[in-house]
Amino acid sequence: MAKQFQVCVLLVILGLALTCRATLYNVGDSSGWDVSSDLDTWKQGKTFVVGDVLVFQYSSSNSVSEVTKQSYQTCNTTNGILQSGSNGNSSFPLTSPGDWYFISGNNLYCLGGMKLHVTVENNPAAAPAPAPESAGTSVSTSTPSSKTNTVISSSVPVFVRGGVDSLVLALMGLVASSILCFG
């Protein structure tokens, strides 16, 4: 009986972990968010899904902003800003499917190609997290750092908030596991 309970608990934990998995992408890999980074090459072969997180590591003379498509196309660093970060280490959770646009806060860097456009796909394994409550802020991962700090692997699983849908899915898994395990 105790062994059955352990198997059931393991099934529930595994079910929760599978519904809450995301990928943490270090933008630019070891080069970071830098004018020397080839961001078009960096994003090739990557599939971005709801729940993934983009991590931007950059020097103190730079910043990053999530912007509208129009601001992306024109490198407008004053209008159309949805969220921004300027502490050297900023994270942006990808909370909804669609096109996401990021530019350097330095207009000359942006005009030089320091901008990123990613298309985010719906993640059928996890419910989307709610959108940020207020524009103009980003999630900070730590104190300011240089791009040479520890590089975060692009395949590190992290747990993200999945919303009410993930909670319902987890509860359904718990009930199904209880029925299977305890008859």
UniProtKB/TrEMBL annotation:
Bias (Low complexity): 137-150
Sequence ranges assigned to domain Phytocyanin in this UniProt record: 23-122
Keywords: Glycoprotein, Metal-binding, Signal
GO CC annotation: plasma membrane
SUPFAM superfamilies per UniProt: Cupredoxins
UniProt KW Zinc keyword: no
GO MF annotation: an example: metal ion binding
Pfam families named in the record: Cu_bind_like
Superkingdom to which the source organism belongs: Eukaryota
Signal peptide limits: 1-22
PROSITE patterns in alphabetical order: PHYTOCYANIN
Chain segments carrying region Disordered: 125-150
Gene3D superfamilies: Cupredoxins - blue copper proteins
Name of protein: Phytocyanin domain-containing protein
